[in-house]
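Bench log. Compound arrived from synthesis this morning; before running ITC I wanted a structural hypothesis for how glutathione sits in the protein. Inputs:
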Amino acid sequence: MSLGTLYHCVGARSFRVLWAAAAGNIPIDLVMLPFPPRVKHRDYLAINPLGTIPAFVADGTVMTESMAICDYLATRHPASRLAVSPDEPDFAACLNWAHHGEATLSFPQAIILRYSRFEPEERRLPQAAEDYTRWFLARLRALEAAMADGRRFLCADRLTLADVSVGYALLLADYLDLKDRFTPGVAAYYAGISAEPSFVRALAWEKEAALAQGISPTPAPLLVG
Ligand SMILES: N[C@@H](CCC(=O)N[C@@H](CS)C(=O)NCC(=O)O)C(=O)O
């Protein structure tokens, strides 16, 4: 039985939810929207007044934070083993990475996107985009340090919410043409995580759903720029 309905735009943070669902074999319904729905699909504001993506409607509640939704799915579907439980050594580390991916890594990416791609030409700010690119790359230092031992996953020797959160930030960096500026440990981690079968399945699911629902399969960050 479906755990809820995900509202998703190709390439947006809601990819984290799709990836978690694909990795954990968690049934969800998927509604694809054009980006930005705030402008191109005004009816969406009745579901999420912020107009941001994702929205996930479950049990009559609308959730609008990508990692909270992933946490919800992992908790409701423990067989997925996407969460690290309190009695595992990496419990605290997993929580920290799961928040780090959005709060520390994706935050500067939103500024880069806005001022290098989404704003009309005359409102773009190359200096802001470059400053926040450097900020983002500097914030990858923690990941580089964690990868020094060549591990494949961030926590608990398996794919967890930590990888879903941080891995999406790296996918977005790839869309932003920043992959060549990754340090070696980050580059190796991204190569491994983006080759994970669940990641590949989630990308295929996203593309298939977009085409089936009449939405462009081009990731939103690549639509302009
Ligand atoms: N912290 C939220 C951020 C949501 C967010 O800002 N989503 C972006 C897409 S990745 C968005 O909807 N931007 C378009 C807009 O602000 O209208 C999350 O993790 O889901």
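What the model suggests: The mean pLDDT is 96. The chain is about 50% helix and 5% strand.
ITC booked for Thursday regardless.
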